[in-house]
Amino acid sequence: MEKPLIINHIYDKHAGILRIRTGERIDSGNAVSFGQVVTTLRQTCPGGRIIFDLEDLKYLSSMGLRVFLKLSKTEKNRISVVNVSPEVEDIFRMTGFDTFFDLSRKMRRVSLDGCAIIGRGANGMVYRLNPDTIIKVFRPDADFSVVEREREKARAALLKGLPTAISYDVVQVGDSYGIVFEMIGSKSLADVLKEDEAHFDRYAKAYSALYKEIHSTEGDVETFGREKDIYEEAIEYCSDVYTPQELEKLRLLVRNIPERTTLIHGDFHPKNIMLIDGELALIDMGDVSTGHPVFDFLATAATQVNLLKLDPAFAEQFTGMPAPMISRLWKSLMEDYFAGKSTDEIRQIDHRIAGFSKLKVALAPYFARDLNEAVLHASIQDARTNLLPIIDELARGFE
């Protein structure tokens, strides 16, 4: 039976990525057909980037190489070639073809059988791999460059002195990528708070101190990027959802937030914080960026305080904590972070953050693309009701 030229292909129109997994051989007998099949796939999935997954490829002839070269000349973006065996990689490098493509070697495979989920986010899931390590598994449509960027951010944050997990290799988990981190004897803060509520206040103060430590750490914009750029991109993404006037109001709100080059985590919640040897450490560093702390506060409020009001059951699932504990932790964060301010001042700050948190809700079509249409529609309506009418007030004045 003839082996298939292409095992499968996935097109993610949101990310703009066409991922093609090849068969075992591309040689003189099938190279032309292979090129034709890829061209047809490209026509049905136009634009964006191509990723070739060579997991199954055992032999690549010179004619096969020419197909790849021809494709590289017609693509506006560099083509990524992943899961390359050492033998096929040698062919690319000896011929100099490695200069035309982004190559990455075949990774070791990891099974998640019996592994417990300890966290989840927009980009993937975190599992306990064994007592000493955890693994962040990305969505199947995640580009390898996204995975590498998160690992680089985690390393850079660690070198900045932030307590974060030590990252090891990138691995293959089914059709997804994963990053393995050392987390010896660790537990998520959510689990610790539930198991040791008697010491809640001590852990809550450490939680707030970690928040402050992140916001006082200078970040390299080239490595970590700017949070404002992410929000500008999110607003453009929602251009078919809001009117031009509404979009301009959202832009104005983001642009009026003062510039900062200090770090923000971007997804700070108790499942993304681990307790190791009595110290808190950060995980899930893919959203780490530079910017004003208000970006962190609005994201934390959106996924905890707001979510608790809209859907308590989902808030409990997301944070891993019961509703009263979510509220208690937020109250403690506000009091500890803004220590020295009066109760009335903290109440005003809390109210202001609640308004800003609606920005994350307004941009749900970008930040939460997996939500069903009904929830997305409700998010947009919520923004029109609770954000846009007060946006001018929010845009004035910052501390």
Note the topology:
Elements: E1 6-12, E2 17-22, E3 25-26, H1 31-44, E4 49-53, E5 59-60, H2 62-74, E6 79-84, H3 86-94, E7 101-105, E8 116-120, E9 124-130, E10 133-138, H4 144-159, E11 166-173, E12 176-182, E13 187-188, H5 189-195, H6 200-215, H7 221-224, H8 227-237, H9 244-255, E14 263-264, E15 273-276, E16 279-282, E17 289-290, H10 294-310, H11 312-319, H12 323-337, H13 343-362, H14 364-367, H15 373-386, H16 391-394
Parallel strand pairs: 2-4, 3-5, 4-6, 6-7
Antiparallel strand pairs: 1-2, 8-9, 9-10, 10-12, 11-12, 13-15, 14-17, 15-16
Helix pairs in contact: 1-2, 6-12, 8-9, 10-11, 10-12, 10-13, 13-15
Features:
16 helices, alpha/beta, 20% strand, Transcription Regulator spoIIAA, 3 domains, Phosphorylase Kinase, domain 1, 17 strands, 399 residues, 5-stranded antiparallel beta sheet, Aminoglycoside 3'-phosphotransferase, Chain: A, domain 2
Q: How does this model look, in words?
A:
The longest helix is centred in the C-terminal third of the chain and has 20 residues, at 343-362. The N and C termini lie far apart (70 Å). Helix 1 runs parallel beside helix 2, helix 6 packs across helix 12 and helix 10 (294-310) packs across helix 11. The protein contains 16 helices and 17 strands. With 399 residues, the protein is of the alpha/beta class. The protein folds into three domains: 6-105, Transcription Regulator spoIIAA, CATH 3.30.750.24; 116-182, Phosphorylase Kinase, domain 1; 187-394, Aminoglycoside phosphotransferase (APH), C-terminal lobe (Aminoglycoside 3'-phosphotransferase, Chain: A, domain 2). It is globular and about 75 Å long. The chain is 46% helix and 20% strand.
